[in-house]
Write a structure and sequence with these properties.
Helices cover about 80% and strands about 0% of the residues. By secondary structure, the chain is mostly helical.
Length: about 140
């Protein structure tokens, strides 16, 4: 629930920032964002591949989540990466649509949410990279 509340707050702030400052957004900026988001998507796919070959995942599958005993720690891990990946895919689709609608400068109201997509993807990227590093370290110990 906290995750969805954070997303709503970030997108409201994004809207207010764009409305207040009326920042100029060009096609080149969106093109660069598409490139960056595509690279992050590649990281997520690679992470899933590394997870699939890790023996540490079997241990995570056996450990129960303390806050929800119906789930394992593996379920939590996959849930985090799955959510981040789907959010990133939604962001890429959003950026493609924004790219189509913008000629050379800001002119389409849907751009009001661009800062929300940027912030949330940076946030989830740092979060998932941190998780990936911890799991890599744990896998090396075993």
């Amino acid at each position: 629930m906290k995750r969805y509340l954070l997303i709503v707050v970030v997108f409201i702030v994004s809207f207010l920032i764009q409305e207040h400052f009326n920042l100029l957004i060009k096609k080149e900026f969106i093109s660069t964002l598409l490139t960056v988001f595509s690279i992050i998507f590649g990281f997520y796919v690679t992470s899933f591949a590394v997870f699939a070959t890790s023996k540490y995942l079997a241990k995570l599958y056996q450990l129960e989540n303390k806050s929800d005993n119906r789930k394992t720690l593996l379920d939590d891990l996959l849930g985090e990466f799955t959510f981040a990946t789907y959010f990133l895919l939604a962001s890429i689709i959003y950026m493609i649509l924004a790219y189509i609608f913008i000629e050379n400068k800001y002119s389409f109201p849907v751009i009001y949410f661009i800062w929300g997509f940027i912030f949330m993807n940076v946030f989830y990227s740092f979060e998932t990279i941190s998780i990936f590093i911890k799991i890599t370290r744990q896998s090396a110990k075993n």
